[in-house]
């Protein structure tokens, strides 16, 4: 047994030794434990540390003693608590909200008028009076939409005006709010906007366009919450913000009913198929 080599398990030694030649100063090792913190590596028994792993393995032991073939007791690892299994609650699909009838009573909206617009109401009234007058002063801009020509005198009476007879409309869609903008300078006192859960009615008067009006009366594609909806009248546009009553995606603003009845299915007369089928001689098969 004296010639059998034993493995030393002291940390930092790793040598093999003969039991009969194991002296008090045969083994140089680290009695402490290795530590790894961030980028540093070292031993708890001495103050040496480094960042390179090869250099860490070559750190000379700080204690001298006999070799030992008994493995050191490893520190107990902290028991990791197993998290509780998360229970996912699957809620049933909520049925779609029942659509109110089109003739549901409508609510007349009280618009929020911008302060700058209120200051221009008196000015707009004066401009309307001047527009009704037959006398046109030099430098007056043309009131037709899209035309930027100014009146330069009697010679302007024979010139051609190129303009847009319609009213510009821009639609914007948000996640839970339907916002529609109607552009133009309107008259707040005579313009009317009404809402119901499934209907939008607007009658806007444009005094600067010689009393032109914009009318819209449509059935909405979805259901809205009238109480949470609002209307804003700004200098050049009207913003109608309609709060959706339920989360949904509107492909378009207006609701279009499908045609009544089943879809037409094409029926073929067997006699009409005869000319389309070529004759086949079964004897050739």
Automatic annotation (TrEMBL):
Question: Tell me, what is one Gene Ontology molecular-function annotation carried by this entry?
Answer: metal ion binding
Q: Where is this region: Disordered?
A: 260-285
Q: Where is the CHORD domain?
A: 8-67
Known Pfam families for this protein?
CHORD
Print the keywords alphabetically. Metal-binding, Repeat, Zinc
Read off the InterPro entries from this record. Answer: CHORD_dom, CHRD1, HSP20-like_chaperone
Q: What is the protein name for this chain?
A: Choed
> Could you read off the lineage of the organism from its UniProt record?
Eukaryota, Metazoa, Ecdysozoa, Arthropoda, Hexapoda
